[in-house]
């Protein structure tokens, strides 16, 4: 039987480029597919920030030009193999030779270019995919263009689109993009209150839409979560499915992670050594007994920082230490800095994006706080659990699908959770967690073990994706 050919189009993949969970997913999901049945390849922008250790071995395989408005833009296709997966990088100095991945005035144009360049790369890489799997708004013009302009070129290619976060949709005025879109009409599939919504176009034109957890797939049909597209999600529910993300258990492994002070398996003593080493490293009082609560996150409204702000003084009345690592909105950065300044012996705030330090914190902490307002899947809680760190989360999206309240009687469950987006509900839940930590250390150990044994292996998700790829291409036997 021929292998199923899948091309992932995305704008991040760890270890080349990552700004959040999307980078983790694209960096680890392709490896999890069965090699005898599939040929999965990935196409990405070639950013300036890709580490030199990889970039130096990229091989230029072809060059062509793509129309962006009236100009012809250069596309250099470079290739790199890693862990049995082929990666293609689209090189264009003007669009991607910049320090950051996103956040430029012309992001719309940059990703219009990327989408068109992906579609036109196919003959040059000579890989005609059965499935073109596009991720998030930056790649969302691809399914639309595939249907509107390229269908005769790629008759056997189906489009699958994954929503990793509905909050970011690629919303632009038609006048802002019409000069670069190369469409001579206003595309109805993308119309959103007289603007262009790139993600909406992908939702209507893809053959299959997935989101990254079953609960989020349901929630998106509700106006509270749908970010204005809940009606579209209800419309397309017949072709929508939620597939839970996994984590790369070889990357996130407390036994082998080189970032840790002390590697450990399920040894609580060694985990505590990581805590005391981190306390020392960060200048907190060194005390193995005090529970450490951590947050590693983008500092944005989504992550529940308003709840934290509302009760942070009450949280810090408990005998705990708190470590926050993140970057994001100035209001949250300042609030967290100020609180840490007020409680220097209890809390530390590090405004940085730091992979190495994040691993040290996951390993050192006793609890990981993630009170998200919404959470498409969430990887941080899974990573925390992998390091034996107990999650305290709000029951939404992927957090609801992965964290189950610990029941003291049956000793089942892997964390703590609360349902309503309410600061005091979060506070009481944290107090309960801290209470269990101090009062019932044996039960706490059971809970840590349960958390670390939770199974988030990508293989399960990859099998589900494969089932749907086969279904959408008519290859299900
Ligand atoms: P999202 O994709 O919404 O940001 P996820 O929980 O799905 O949230 O993924 C976040 C990923 O980014 C995790 O791997 C987390 O460890 C990492 N991360 C977030 N903030 C930082 C930071 N300041 N430094 C290092 N890693 C971070």
UniProtKB/TrEMBL annotation:
It catalyses: [(1->4)-alpha-D-glucosyl](n) + ADP-alpha-D-glucose = [(1->4)-alpha-D-glucosyl](n+1) + ADP + H(+). It comes from the Bacteria. Pfam families: Glyco_transf_5, Glycos_transf_1. Transmembrane segments: none annotated. One of its GO terms (molecular function) is alpha-1,4-glucan glucosyltransferase (UDP-glucose donor) activity. ADP-alpha-D-glucose binds at residue 18. This is Glycogen synthase. Residues 5-234 form the Starch synthase catalytic domain. Belongs to the glycosyltransferase 1 family. Bacterial/plant glycogen synthase subfamily. Residues 287-426 form the Glycosyl transferase family domain. The keyword Glycosyltransferase applies. The gene is glgA. The lineage of its organism: Bacteria, Bacillati, Bacillota, Clostridia, Eubacteriales. Its EC number is 2.4.1.21. It is an enzyme of class 2 (transferase). Gene3D superfamilies: Glycogen Phosphorylase B. Keywords: Glycogen biosynthesis, Glycosyltransferase, Transferase. GO terms for biological process: glycogen biosynthetic process. The keyword Nucleotide-binding does not apply. Pathway: Glycan biosynthesis; glycogen biosynthesis. InterPro entries: Glyco_trans_1, GS/SS, Starch_synth_cat_dom. Synthesizes alpha-1,4-glucan chains using ADP-glucose.
């Amino acid at each position: 039987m021929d292998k199923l050919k899948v091309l992932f189009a995305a704008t991040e993949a760890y270890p080349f480029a990552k700004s959040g969970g999307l980078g983790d997913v694209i960096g680890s999901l392709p490896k999890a597919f069965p090699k005898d049945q599939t040929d999965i390849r990935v196409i990405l922008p070639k950013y300036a920030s890709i580490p030199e250790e990889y970039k130096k071995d990229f091989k230029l395989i072809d060059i062509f030009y793509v129309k962006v408005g009236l100009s012809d833009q250069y596309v250099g296709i470079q290739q790199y193999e890693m862990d049995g997966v082929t990666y293609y990088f689209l090189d264009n100095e003007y669009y991607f030779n910049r320090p950051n991945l996103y956040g430029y005035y012309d992001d719309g144009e940059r990703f219009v270019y990327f989408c068109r360049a992906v579609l036109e790369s196919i003959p040059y890489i000579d890989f005609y995919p059965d499935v073109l799997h596009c991720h998030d708004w930056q790649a969302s013009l691809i399914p639309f263009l595939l249907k509107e302009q390229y269908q005769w070129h790629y008759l056997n290619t189906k489009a699958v689109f994954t929503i990793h976060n509905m909050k970011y949709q690629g919303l632009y005025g038609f006048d802002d993009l019409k000069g670069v879109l190369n469409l001579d009409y206003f595309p109805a599939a993308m119309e959103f209150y007289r603007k262009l919504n790139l993600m909406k176009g992908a939702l209507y034109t893809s053959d299959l839409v997935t989101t990254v957890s079953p609960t989020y797939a349901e929630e998106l049909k509700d106006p509270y979560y749908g970010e204005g597209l809940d009606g579209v999600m209800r419309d397309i529910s017949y072709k929508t499915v939620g597939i839970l993300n996994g984590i790369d258990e070889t990357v996130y492994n407390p036994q082998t992670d080189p970032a840790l002070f002390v590697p450990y398996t399920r040894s609580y003593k060694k985990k505590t050594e990581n805590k005391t080493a981190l306390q020392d490293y960060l200048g907190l009082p060194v005390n193995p007994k005090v529970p450490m609560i951590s947050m590693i996150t983008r500092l944005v409204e989504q992550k529940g920082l308003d709840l934290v702000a509302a009760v942070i003084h009450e949280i810090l009345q408990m005998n705990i230490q708190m470590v926050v690592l993140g970057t994001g909105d100035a209001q949250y950065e300042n609030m967290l800095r100020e609180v840490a300044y007020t409680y220097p012996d209890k809390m530390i705030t590090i405004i940085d994006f730091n992979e190495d330090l994040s691993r040290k914190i996951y390993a050192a902490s006793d609890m990981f706080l993630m009170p998200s307002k919404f959470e498409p899947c969430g990887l941080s809680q899974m990573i925390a659990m992998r390091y034996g760190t107990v999650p305290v989360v709000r029951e939404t999206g992927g957090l609801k699908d992965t964290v189950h309240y610990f029941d003291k009687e049956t000793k089942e469950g892997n964390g703590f959770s609360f349902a309503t987006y309410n600061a005091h509900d979060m506070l009481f839940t944290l107090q309960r967690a801290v209470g269990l930590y101090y009062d019932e250390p044996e039960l706490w150990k059971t809970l840590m073990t349960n958390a670390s044994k939770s199974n988030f292996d990508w293989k399960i998700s990859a099998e589900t994706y494969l089932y749907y790829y086969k279904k959408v291409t008519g290859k299900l036997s």
